[in-house]
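Record minuted for everyone:
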Amino acid sequence: MPSTTECHPAVSVDLGSTYGAYFFGLIASASLFGVACMQIISYFRHHSRSDPALMKWTVAVIWLFESAHFGNTIYGVHYYLVVNYNNPSALMNIIWAPAVNLGLLACVVFIVHLSYARRIYILTDRKVKVLPLSICFLALLNLAFSWIVTGFLLSGDNRLGHLPLTLTKVALAVAAFLDIVIAASLTVILHKSRPRTPKNLQVYAFGTWGRTDTLINRLILYTINNGILTTVLALLVMFFIIFDNRDLIYLALADVVSKFYAISMVTMLNSRKRLSEQLRPDPSKQTLTDSFANFPRTETTTRLSFELRAQ
């Protein structure tokens, strides 16, 4: 079998850092897509009757976008590494599948950011409107930039120069900035929602205050972990685009980023039942202080219960 160099002496492609990385991105995406499907199936099994139609349609649309994104990744790897095996000149061209995937990734990120904006709006008793609206505006801007880049890539116009690359950097920077803003805002809101600690520590340990405080701590932990993960991945994609855009490591990471956005959102939805159970009294810990602990639910507890039911 003739070597690649002999067939196409004018074309040189390092498959290890380009389409080799793209192939490993497909493997990672397949694993994460399986996790996302498992979480989505679990959501519809346990929350299809209790959640509003808007939330169910949101999860369904995310699953459709992720399925299309994963299918395009499979098609791209098959086109470059199977159909055009031993044809390096074909590897230098961008086909429609990875270009459309950029827009699909932006759609998933857009939906997730809107859901977090809604959560901020609910947790602030619908009083804070500027922050959620700003998040929605920046998320829409990110979506627009991403689909503009997709259109440029599909057009194949080489006269655009570095404009598509610049817009991609801006879109990734906006996405990372929104992740930081959302995580910080939810952390501050949840921290300010803590009830005042009673002087009686036994009442605090076994009563509504202790359970609410524990729930807030876990919500803050989930929020920070999800925000850090998606932010780091978005910054890594931007880093490889800026300093190593001749390789396709950024493309492999971009395939993984969309899955983490979807998983973080659906996992949070699935964890509501387990988190809301922490607000209920634990019979195994009842003591003589229960007469003091079983006061009416606090405003914070009521708000968190509503947010866990209807987010």
